[in-house]
Amino acid sequence: MTQILEINSSGRKTGSISRQLVSRVSNRFKAADPTTTIINRDVAAGLPVVTESWIGANFTPKDERTPEQADLLALSDELVAELRVADTIVIGLPIYNFGVPAALKSWIDLVARAGETFRYTNTGPEGLLTGKRAIVTVASGGVPVGSPMDHATTYLTQVLGFIGITDVTYVSATGLAVDPDAALKSAEAEIDALPLASVA
To answer: How far separated are the first and last CA of the chain, in Å rounded?
Structure first.
């Protein structure tokens, strides 16, 4: 059984290409294995930003936290737990102004936690969420993935690797502002050709 965590970050609910492609990826897994379970996390619905109080709670040892500090970290704990149980993380990534949406950055800030998803060692930081796969569906009006203008996928690859997820595949619908039909068909073809097993 595959456990999928869907993360949607597009501010658009209707007509979102990244959301459409996320669903196509998950449906492909579901069609191959009906026992596949899917958790959907819509970060565009709103996540709190990291504050001074949150940082204080995060760096307080777990057994010393006050009830108020535990409450501050409750959502972050839930988001981390979703990552831990998932085999495959499917992320919808619309490129906004050459980078990731603010909503996705907020999710990253809440899950990249020392002692939870990574740890510091004598040889440097070590990601703790190993053995997982990420498939990222990119929607872009005109920023090609991997181009000098693309600060979204390079950043996301760095973040995912930092927490231990190094098997990352990008599916790109690029050029939506020029030829949306061709961009969408190209991305759909990439999804339909994806191997369902991890290649790591």
So the answer is: 18
CATH 3.30.70.100 fits 3-192, yes or no: no
pLDDT (tens digit per residue) in 48-88: 999 999 999 999 999 999 999 999 999 999 999 999 999 99
pLDDT tens digits, residue range 120-136?
999 999 999 999 999 99
For residue 85, what are the CA distances in angstroms to 27, 54, 119, 121, 134? 19, 24, 19, 24, 13
**Three-state secondary-structure class, residue 43:** helix
| Rounded Cα distance, 21 and 198, in Å | 19
Q: Are strands 88-94 and 124-127 parallel, antiparallel or unpaired?
A: unpaired
What pLDDT shows up at residue 198?
58
Strand 124-127 relative to strand 118-121: parallel, antiparallel, unpaired?
antiparallel
Greatest Cα-to-Cα distance within the chain, rounded to the nearest angstrom: 56
For every residue of 94-116, DSSP letters joined together read: E-BTTB--HHHHHHHHHH--BTT
Task: Enumerate the domain spans of the chain.
Answer: 3-192
